[in-house]
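User: Can you predict the 3D structure for this chain?
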Amino acid sequence: MAVEGKNRSLIYLLLVAVVLFWGVNVVMMKYLTRFYPPLALAPIRLGLATCVLIPAVFSRYGFVIPSREALLPVCGAALFSVFLHHATLAAGVAVTSGSHAALILGLNPLATSLLAGFVREKLSTMKMLGIVLGFSGVLLIASGKSQGTASLYGDIIMFSSMFVVSVGYLFIKKSTVYLPTLVVTAYTHILGTAGLIVLGLCENSVWVYEGAGNLQPVAVLLFSSFINTALGAVLWNTGIKQVGASITSMFSNGIPVAGVLASAFFLHEQLTLSHFAALFLVVAGVSAGTGIVDFEFLKRKGQE
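Assistant: Here is the predicted structure, written as structure tokens:
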């Protein structure tokens, strides 16, 4: 059934809120690495988020046991979209700037579309154009002179984080054939968090730095975990269910914009012309590569 009127407007507002949450989340994680080692921050954040997701999802669906067919894609989604993504995300933001991290993560819809294209269909001209534009934007900032906390090493880790979560989305899509989306979300967070805890125990002799218990870092940690991660995932999945994946994906273009601006405002990172040029290329690339903007239609209209 189509969503109309006020309900559709409400969904759009919620999706805008998620975009802001996820854009600012990069800045929050960058801030939190001052108080937590990266591989301690990841399991702490995901553990808190999972504690919110489990009762919310299970109260709606009850205790759902995955079928044998669902188990492999659920484990794949947990490995790529939670465990590897959040481990590299926390490690990456610790050694590069917030603006670079936001721009690189902004390639996620394009990478997801590219991987899906390899699986289902040949790459179209528009997807190839999107790939060239989007990745050119990242190369523009990665190859330039590093400023502040930005580094090529950190940019490479962030790119890995972006890519593995794109792979994870393919497993999530396969998982939702057998299970409701929110049940998949809960199980992937449970499995991924368990893996992150084991990794953290192996890697960290110290889990918190001085000042981690102060009001501000605690508040940022809770907001990042409960609102950005847990609530953000629920609202995004709700948007996909109510208005469809194609419309929901349109809002993802705002994530790098929100992240870059938040990095400048909260972290006082200096934005140069190359940052704005890269932002334009990333947004244009995602728009072309995912079909958010029908450039062929615009071309035909201009010829009429």
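The CA atoms of residues 260 and 276 lie 9 Å apart. The mean pLDDT is 83.
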